């Protein structure tokens, strides 16, 4: 989950490795393919657009940590440095094949999955209810929502993660 964002996309190579991986998953013919994505719009080839979107995306993480973890917490510091910081630097400082952080919005992944030959599996409302109930134990600004058979997770209006279930369509 969440690793397809590191594959080169259509802006880097003509034949998308993302499509190739999805075709391979379809060929394997799993009972269920859980697709978890970083919902990001910071994959623009134009620096200004990419920087603005990355700032909006990563500031949500830092804001979330500020509201939920003490600044001196070792795990927070490691997460900020090793996960958020490393990814943000890659998005902002690297171009071409050097930039490996290339997320797509979940709606774009949905279109890609359908084009490859997957069909989305409806979410069980009991699971949605359980996930939404867990949210009550956390900060009020966490978001748990659903859209078109995607479970959406976010912070203060910013959707950060999206998860859905897929099956290969019968041909």
UniProtKB/TrEMBL annotation:
Predominant location: nucleus
Pfam family, one: GRAS
Species name: Salix suchowensis
Annotated stretches, region: SAW: 93-167
InterPro entries: TF_GRAS
Protein name, entry field: GRAS family transcription factor
Family in the record: Belongs to the GRAS family.
Localisation: Nucleus
């Amino acid at each position: 989950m969440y690793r397809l964002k590191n594959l080169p996309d259509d802006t880097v190579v003509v034949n998308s490795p993302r499509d190739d991986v999805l075709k391979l998953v379809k060929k394997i013919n799993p009972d269920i393919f859980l697709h978890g994505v970083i919902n990001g719009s910071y994959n623009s080839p134009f620096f200004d657009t990419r920087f603005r979107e990355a700032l909006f995306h990563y500031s949500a993480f830092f804001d979330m940590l500020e509201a939920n973890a003490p600044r001196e917490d070792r795990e927070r510091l490691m997460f900020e440095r090793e996960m958020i910081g490393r990814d943000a630097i890659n998005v902002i400082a690297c171009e071409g094949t050097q930039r490996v952080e290339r997320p797509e919005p979940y709606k774009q992944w949905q279109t890609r999955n359908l084009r490859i030959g997957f069909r989305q599996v409806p979410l069980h409302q009991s699971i949605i209810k359980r996930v939404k109930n867990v949210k009550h134990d956390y900060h009020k600004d966490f978001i748990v929502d659903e859209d078109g058979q995607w479970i959406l997770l976010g912070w203060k209006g910013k959707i950060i993660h999206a998860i859905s279930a897929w099956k290969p369509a019968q041909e």
